[in-house]
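Reopening this one. Same input as before:
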Amino acid sequence: MLMAHPMVLENLVEQYGTLRALYTENGSAEVRRQLEDVTYTLCVSTGTRDIDAALTASCRQLARARSEIDFALVG
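Same output, byte for byte:
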């Protein structure tokens, strides 16, 4: 399975959080569309079918990437 670069995942998770907060505040159609787009992209990027699973997978992948970077710096 292809995996998204950690920076891409981090950006998508951040966008999701921002858009989710905006949608909660005002619920505009434009923000909803952007939220749906980011949700879809996160799901595709993580090989999942719902946002909860996508966020969980993103957290795991980002943690793994960080530990690999830490190991490379130390080892």
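So the earlier flakiness isn't reproducible anymore. For the record, The mean pLDDT is 90.
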